[in-house]
């Protein structure tokens, strides 16, 4: 998964007279506990039942570090941290929550970052003090979409 700091958010974090692309930007967001849509999506992604049960009621901290076109995207769970690093418009090695490794090219269009790979599409965008993520997974059982809105901390 990925995130983009909008121009307004970057400007708010950048000292006057400096350009955001020359500074490291760190944003942290806290998501609400998981819900049914996420559970359905995890079924489609073949996440084992025991892993889904453990994650049903905890909150996730998403940490986004941007340095120009380079991003480090971390999701911090109670017992694990998952981190993917990527450069916009370059193929990058990534890993799913289930530990499956894949390659994807993350793109940015109009303030929104998109990561697309077989059977999965993830978009992320910062709007004010919120991180809005939309994930769609498809498989033999159908398609599930999850929208998660996390608040900045």
Description:
This protein is of the alpha+beta class. Helix content is about 15%, strand content about 50%. The protein is built from three helices and ten strands; from the N terminus they run αβααβββββββββ. A ten-stranded antiparallel β-sheet has the order 4-3-2-1-10-9-8-7-6-5. Belongs to the calycin superfamily. Fatty-acid binding protein (FABP) family.
Using brief descriptors, characterize the structure shown:
153 residues; alpha+beta; Lipocalin; ten-stranded antiparallel β-sheet; disordered N terminus; Calycin; lipid binding; ILBP
Question: How do you describe this structure in short?
Answer:
With 153 residues, this protein is an alpha+beta fold. The protein contains three helices and ten strands. It has one domain: Beta Barrel (Lipocalin), CATH 2.40.128.20.
Report the count of strand segments: 10
CATH architecture: Beta Barrel
Largest sheet composition: 10 strands, antiparallel
Derived from helix and strand composition plus strand pairing, the structural class reads alpha+beta
| Spatial strand arrangement across the major sheet | 4-3-2-1-10-9-8-7-6-5
Please tell me what the overall shape is: globular
Round the Cα radius of gyration to an integer and report it.
15 Å
Question: Taking all residues together, what is the mean pLDDT?
Answer: 75
What is the third-level CATH name, the topology?
Lipocalin
Strand-residue proportion = over 45%
| H/I helix tally | 3
Order of helices and strands: HEHHEEEEEEEEE
Helix content: 10-25%
The low-confidence parts are: 1-22
Distance between the termini: 19 Å
Give the number of domains: 1
Annotated CATH homologous superfamily: Calycin beta-barrel core domain
Identify the CATH class: Mainly Beta
């Amino acid at each position: 998964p990925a995130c983009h700091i909008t121009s307004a958010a970057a400007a708010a974090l950048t000292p006057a007279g400096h350009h955001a692309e020359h500074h490291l930007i760190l944003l942290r967001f806290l998501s609400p506990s998981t819900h049914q849509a996420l559970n359905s999506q995890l079924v489609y992604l073949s996440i084992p039942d025991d892993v889904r049960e453990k994650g049903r009621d905890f909150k996730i901290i998403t940490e986004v570090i941007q340095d120009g076109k380079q991003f480090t995207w971390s999701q911090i769970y109670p017992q694990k941290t998952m981190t993917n690093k990527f450069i916009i418009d370059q193929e990058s090695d990534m890993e799913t929550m289930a530990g499956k490794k894949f390659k994807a090219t993350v793109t940015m269009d109009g303030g929104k970052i998109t990561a697309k790979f077989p059977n999965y599409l993830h978009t992320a965008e910062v709007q004010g003090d919120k991180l809005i993520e939309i994930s769609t997974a498809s498989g033999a059982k159908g398609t599930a979409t999850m929208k998660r809105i996390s608040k900045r901390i």
